[in-house]
Amino acid sequence: MMPAMQNLSTAVPTVWSFSLHAVQAAMWIGGLLLVLFAALRMRWSKLVALLVFLTMDLIMFGAFVRLTDAGLGCPDWPGCYGHFTPAQAHVQIGEAVAEQGGTQGNVSAFKAWVEMIHRYVATVIGALTVAMAVRAAMTRRRRNAVRLGLPLLLVAWVVLQGLFGAWTVTLLLKPLIVTLHLMGGVVLLVLAAWFWMRNRDDLPGADAGAGTRALLWLALAATLWQVFLGGWVSTNYAALACSGFPTCNGTLHPHADWVRGFTFWRNLGENPDGSAITLQALVAIQWGHRLFALVLTAVLAAACAAMARHAALRRLAAAIALLLVAQIALGAGVVVFAHPLVLAVLHNGVAALLVLLLTVSVYRAAAPRSGSTRSRLES
């Protein structure tokens, strides 16, 4: 259930400082500038849609990073042993593999590439958000018509995500940091999707009423909390603490240590006092995720029923209901089939899709808007 975390003690020491040397940093910055240049010339609608798409991909790939134990594949930041690519760090990677006794530890060529590809995509997303903010500022300077709050918030959020990405490595996969890094990506998806919708002319509102809007906001908040709980399961490697479904280890009342399971600030695999975390604490983490899934199912069912009363929201309601069924099946499959990688990644991806569709639903449930900034930004 829990990976061979004993290898953490033999991994190359992590660093807080920027690890790239001058030439390697120039390569990174050069690539970022190329992306920025392309983004400034791209059509506005395609730019924002690309940001949403890549953010969705990054969330799923981040799950792949966690589930393949590749978070310390390059134990420095933002490079890999001070280099731009793992290929340039093959000597250091080979030494780390030999020191830890094989590729089953934290470092391997495969894990290094997985981790670095994750960072490359994150860098592209950062460049896209900067390009959006620059273009919005330029449009506002010419016409004084575009609000800059959301573009600037996106840039600030990406910077914060970068910091959490660095802390994920330098704090040796501390569960709370890794989980917050996941949640930061999900919130970035919400912000990007909201910005994307706000700049479209072809997205009609439904004027669904205050009750439906409140229920949709509740559904979105509950889904975000369930994503946090799922991230807490993943970052603590508690997915198999409960065997069997729907029971946990053959009972509906498993012995669970809720206090230690949900003590957030601690090292991976440890209690705050440094002792090893118990199976009962891991059971609490897994069982808590399952129990709240029941609450979320009820909330989403009520939200879908309310949406179905409005013609403009019926397709969204059907899609959310379908994703909910798929998510329950994937969650059960992860447990029953002993955590296969494909099902686990899909479980994360469907959760992100649910967040995305609920964000669209919240936006469209509002009264129809009289205009859009898209035409101003395209001009």
Describe this structure in words.
With 379 residues, the chain is mainly α. It folds into two domains: 13-199; 205-379, no CATH class. It has twelve helices and no strands. The relative contact order is 0.12.
Topology:
Elements: H1 22-41, H2 44-67, H3 90-100, H4 109-143, H5 149-170, H6 175-198, H7 210-235, H8 258-261, H9 279-307, H10 314-336, H11 341-364, H12 374-378
Helix pairs in contact: 1-4, 2-4, 2-6, 2-11, 4-5, 5-6, 6-7, 6-11, 7-9, 7-11, 9-10, 10-11
Instruction: Tell me the overall shape.
Output: flat
Q: In DSSP terms, counting alpha (H) and pi (I) runs of 4 or more, how many helices?
A: 12
The gyration radius over C-alpha positions equals 22 Å
Amino-to-carboxy terminus distance: 55 Å
Q: Which class of secondary structure composition applies to the elements?
A: mainly alpha
The tally of domains stands at: 2
Question: Helical amount among residues, as a percent range?
Answer: 55-70%
Quick check: average pLDDT?
A: 89
Unreliable stretches: 1-16, 370-376
How big a fraction of the residues is strand?
under 5%
The major β-sheet equals: none
Number of strands: 0
Q: H/E element string?
A: HHHHHHHHHHHH
Give a short overview.
It is built from twelve helices and no strands. It is mainly alpha-helical and 379 residues long. Helix 2 runs antiparallel to helix 4 and helix 7 runs antiparallel to helix 11.
Using brief descriptors, characterize the structure shown.
0% strand; 379 residues; mainly alpha; 12 helices
